Amino acid sequence: MRWATAVGATLALALAASPLGAGTSGQAGATTPQAAPLYDLAMGDSLGAGVGASPATDQYVDLVYQHELSRFPTLELDNLSCGGATTHSVIDGPGCTYATGTQLGDAEAFLRAHPRHVALLTIDIGANDVDDCQVGESLSPTCIQSGLQDIAAQLPTILDGLEAAYPGLAIYGMDYYDPFLGEWLLGSGGQTVADQSEQLVVSLNALLAQLYGASEAAMADPASLFQVTDSAPTGSYLGLTEPQNVADACNWTLFCSDDGNIHANDTGHALLAQAFDASLDGVTVPASSLPAATVGSGYSATLSATGGHPPYRWKRAPGSAALPPGVRLTSSGSLVGKPRRAGTFAFDAEVTDTRLDIAGAPPVHLATRSFLLTVVPAPVGTRRR
User: Fold this and answer.
1) Half-sphere exposure in the Cβ direction for 117 (13 Å, CA)
2) For 117-172, what is each residue's pLDDT tens digit?
3) Assuming Cys at both sites, which of 115, 238, 243, 337 could form a disulfide with 327, CB separation 3.0 to 4.6 Å?
4) For residue 369, what are the domain limits?
């Protein structure tokens, strides 16, 4: 993100280093096996570079890294994030100093140099493509549309390049909070900007979700933690009641306290890390009700999961009761078929996420949930087929 001194991130590629896992002891001619390191590779803009966090150890990238050390004790962090980065500059520059000339080029080189030893890659990118669109007391629709088009064209190129360099890479992107909600405090003109900004962030985050999903990348959701769309008068800032999303933007970013600085403060960085951790920690199956089915009629419903790393794989849990006769659960989470018998059927569904085949990786994440599917009789007079 802009409005801060660009933070350089130089990648030191160990292309000529000793093979992973090899080490020398103090005794000449003797070698001591060492645990091969795994890597947490970070990409992004100034948020990823830690702007707004004080001290630097409070930046979200470092907090995520510290969180993952419990699962990967040999994990090492390489952060390529660069202040002011856009989707365009990640691919083509300009930007910070990189060995290959670009952030994407260094990331791809790192990935190729460390096969099966990158546990995860986090990336935040896209905000700078649209954050210069304020003109007076309104946002420029032309500027916004151009920025969203740039993201739609270039983020898939970034993700495709990473996947090509490291097939199966576990990529975790993120959506964005809205610091410009703080404009609300400036009166009617500022409230117009705040309302327009909220609409922009909703569109931006929907686009990011679509693009990350199409590339089978996970997406952390700090926008929900920042309650970007909650305008209820339940928030508090400096002892005054404000819309909840406005209060969150003021309390968790520097926007209202530091002359429009859009970066997250220490609390905001902790929330960004929390959003990533929610995806990294495992899969959750939200409680939900299944629509009723009818004997002899086609049925379709889809189970959902969050967290972990999509795509998800579903099956009936071991030991579960049977599904209604004529209905099956597909690996993608769809319940399909034509029920043959009425009744209420209880069953357990199991979901796992997909994880990269890396050295020393823990098992895939797994979650189960119980469901009830009610099958009602066919209407009287309906001919059985």
Assistant:
1) 19
2) 999 999 999 999 998 888 877 889 999 999 999 999 999 999 999 999 999 899 99
3) 337
4) 284-376
